[in-house]
Amino acid sequence: GMVSVDDLVFTADALTVEKSRVPLTSLVATLKTCPELRVEVLVTANSDSAELSAKRADALKAYLTGKGVD
Prior knowledge:
Elements: E1 9-10, E2 17-19, H1 21-33, H2 50-66
Antiparallel strand pairs: 1-2
């Protein structure tokens, strides 16, 4: 199965999530409860910048790791 965390809004041209931290908190709790789950991070930027999208995906991965998700 797949779990989707939609509507994460990043600050314009930045790596900071501006809105929707509640779904991230729920995702962290779920991943800690079910460590066998794996996550695929897909990020798109309105500017169609592949570099910005990759950096945002890395920032999200760092957030999850910082919260104790392996």
